[in-house]
Amino acid sequence: MTDPYPEHMMESVRRVNATRDERKDMEFDRIPEEESDELLRQWHPDYRKSDAAFFRELAVGPAKGKIVPTEVANVLEAHPRVNPSDVDLSEVEYSTELLVIGTGGAGLSAILWANNEGIAMEDILVSTALRLGDSNSKMSQGGIQACDGKDDSPMIHWLDVLSGGHWTNDRPLARDLVEKGPLAIKWLESLGATFDKEQDGDMQLLMAGGASRKRIHSCKDYTGLELTRVLMDEALSRDVNTLEFCPTVSLLTDGSGAVAGGLLWNMETEEYHVVRSKATVIATGGFGRLHVAGFPTTNHYAATCDGLVSAYRVGADIIHMQSTQYHPTGAAYPEQIVGLLVTEKCRSMGAQLVNDDGEAFIYPLEPRDVESAAELKEIGEGRGITTPTGQDGIWLDTPMIDKKRGEGALEDGLAAIYRLFTRFGIDPTEYPVLVHPTLHYQNGGIAINRDTQVVKPDGSPIENLFASGETTGGVHGDNRLMGNSWLEIVVFGRKSGISAAKHAKKAKMPKKSDLSLAHLDKYSKELEEAGIETERRTPIILPNYLGENTMKATGYGKEKPFKRRLDLFA
Amino acid sequence: MSQNQEVEKKDQPESEMATIYIMGKPYEVPSELTIMQAQEYAGYRLIRGVGCRGGYCGACTTIYRKKDDYKLHIDLACQTKVEDGMYLVQLPFVPAQKPKWDLEELEATSEEVIRIFPEITRCVSCNTCTQACPQNLEPMRAIQAIRRGDLEQAADLSFDCISCGACSARCPAEITHYHVFQLVRRLYGKYIQPKAEHVAQRVGEIEEGKFDDQMDELIELPEDRIRELFLDVRAGNEFSLDQNSGEE
After folding, report:
1. Which helix (H) or strand (E) holds A182?
2. Which of A205, B135, B151, B195 has a CA that sits 20 to 30 A from residue B166's CA?
């Protein structure tokens, strides 16, 4: 059989093979707290608040003075993509009760529940950057949490959410999240979603990291795919009115600061569509494709923080944006799967993280941020492995699983991982696989209240504007637990649909003559006054992977900073 | 290890280049790239034919032939490496209208599915769909299962379907498999798979307000107390606001 890795990597594989026997019964000490704190401080990107390459204080806008990742500051401290003088707002193409922006789990839930609340489908217009349903929601594997187990309760789930979020969560939002959990599951079940169940219909509940009860509801390891396609099918069956490949590039206001609709950009015909609406819901998802701190990502192509940028320019506050979730084991080779998740279960079953010299350098089941920092240290100090496309990584010694648990253990217990790598000629029972921390989730986002109204820094709502899902912040605090994101998009997606529908029923349609993009001019002026000179124009809609950018996906580390970092604005 | 060796080891070998033909035009691209990345490397700004970039969304169905190989291959552009001499085009879209249905008014029977999709009775079991599937599923078997009345098996066989449309683009009977399977799975999930009673029960308890008082009190507690309560439930104990409070 031919070697699955290029020769320079095979040399390293042979060093890993040579130490496997002696590592088999190796006892790891959990690293002491002072040491893990030091590791995090030195190597975890979230702890580099004072390093301008990683974080920057916002110089403009409603959250001016808050510290956010540099990539987020870059999209916020940028000129509007739209030049207001290029747009004729008197040509209103659509007048609609409700504009929903984004069609992942949150957007789809919002559409269906607004319809349930009495807004006709033809009175809901949907804007989406790619196709209906293209989203991170669809890529989720693990499952959805809800407190319907016999030994569970909303209180216990709430405590877990708070613990996961390092006690920084918006408490009432977290309460709404857990209390509506069982209802979310019941709704999905009634729409015909196929959950993993026992013969009698009881859910096969699983444990999530950081949870104290079994609470994960799954649909094999395609939970997000199953739930998204059920919601899509229901929306399509109700004749949803979607403008695909038409992202919203700016909100419209009525001149008084109230939101009055959106300006959509048709990527195929390259023209603007002016949409006037009584209520608008932002459900555009997260920011993985900004490659925060230079990381590869698990996120889909259009996860570029666009809704947050639009909301910020009409005065929305943003919260918890200083914290980003990295998963320690994203695939780093082959190139086709860089960034994709390699489940934590590999390490639960005995796989160790091993460096270029064949040394295991950390207890494999430290918290995710500590594991990630330890890998980055090895790479940063020259003990990582570099692939032909320049991606750094660390070995995850998967053959150890069968060695410890007997032949067949990996294939039985980790069928998806086995498939993932054998597809590319790498048998993970014989060869280690290369991993690197991967950017997984935007913990913070647009500030909302319990009605999902978007709020300003003083807590007052922005008139006619609602938001739900990963684009919002608060409910997860500084860190989200597995399975709570799908719960969030169903619970708050639903809430945003209902709230926006109720609002639209009593609101007046904005006057055509009042439609305005003046807030963009004001924003540009603010940039100028703050002395920010930049060519950047946002929202970016899609990352730029053209030409040489294709080859410089990602990279991390102070000593060889960002050698593969994307120039998103090239 | 000396500094020199370290540097030498970090030297990356030069990428090998491959010539691929995108809609007939040749481009030199690094051979490690996926079809999707190779198109971007060549300068194509992808809008259609790209989505999750991780093998889940089915947007990047690509048809290609290899050098000296008459066979027509179908794969996902984001999950397939380029090869020298590859001739390719992406399917930007598969024209297959999805019929609308109200699940509440349907029965979970194969007759119902055939009423909506009569063309599935034209399946000649040629298995072209199965050969086209980039997920290595067996759409032909699933269609036959529906005809036999076994919706459960059809739902199971099609569960990993990502709706890329490769099967439907190739089917001589002009079946739109992925829409058929979506209906079958929803009918199965709603009417055949038994309901989770414990979920409905918990919804009832929450709606009756069973937990309201405790939640009202819990979310107002100081952080120290919340941490204690968390450690208590984490240890497997039942949740109780009274527990331990006497010790404070």
Report:
1. helix A181-190
2. B151
> Terminal CA-to-CA distance of chain B, rounded, Å?
58
A194 close contact with B: CB closer than 8 A: yes
pLDDT for the residue A335: 78
Residues A120 and A293: their CA atoms lie apart, in Å, by 44
Residue-level pLDDT at A557? 32
Q: In this structure, are residues A259 and A253 in contact, taking their beta carbons and an 8 Å threshold?
A: yes
The confidence score (pLDDT) of residue A552 equals 53
pLDDT in tens, A546-564: 877 776 544 443 233 333 3
CB of B225 within 8 Å of any CB in chain A?
A: no
- CB atoms inside a 10 Å sphere around CB B234: 16
Q: What is the pLDDT of residues A301-317, one digit of tens each?
A: 999 999 999 999 999 99
Question: A79-80 and A537-538: which strand pairing?
Answer: parallel
- Tell me: cis bond preceding A539? Omega within 30 of 0 counts: yes
Q: How far apart, in whole angstroms, are the C-alpha atoms of residue A162 and residue A168?
A: 7
Residue located via tokens 């949870």: A211
Q: What is the pLDDT of residue B15?
A: 63
Phi, psi (degrees; rounded to nearest 5) at B17: -100, 150
Cα A18 to Cα A107, A356, A361, A428, A442, distances in angstroms: 51, 12, 16, 16, 40
| pLDDT reading at A416 higher than 90 | no
Tokens of A85: 């003088």
Test A546 with B40 for CB contact under 8 angstroms. Answer: yes
Residue-wise pLDDT for B14-39, tens only, equals 568 999 999 999 999 988 888 999 99
Element housing A523 (H / E): helix A518-529
Instruction: Say how far apart CA B142 and CA A34 lie, in whole Å.
Output: 57
From A528's Cα to the closest Cα of chain B, the distance in A is: 32
Nearest CA among A26, A28, A29 for reference residue A403: A26
CA-CA distance, A59 to A359, in Å (whole number)? 45
Q: How deeply is B13 buried, as exposed, middle or buried, from its count of CB atoms within 10 A (0-12, 13-18, 19+)?
A: exposed
Q: Is A200 strand, coil or helix?
A: coil
Q: Which amino acid is at B44?
A: Y
Show the tokens assigned to B106: 């349907």
| A422: closest CA of chain B, how far (Å) | 12
Cα–Cα separations (whole angstroms), residue A464 to A185, A502, A516: 29, 11, 15
Which amino acid does the sequence have at A404?
A: K
Rounded Cα distance between A218 and A333, Å, is 28
- How large is the ipTM? 0.93
**Which two three-digit tokens encode residue A547?**
């030409």
* Distance separating alpha carbons of residues A497 and A476, to the nearest angstrom: 21
Which of B199, B230, B231 best tests the A interface by mutation, with the highest count of A CBs <10 A?
B199
| CB-based contact B81:B32 (threshold 8 Å) | yes
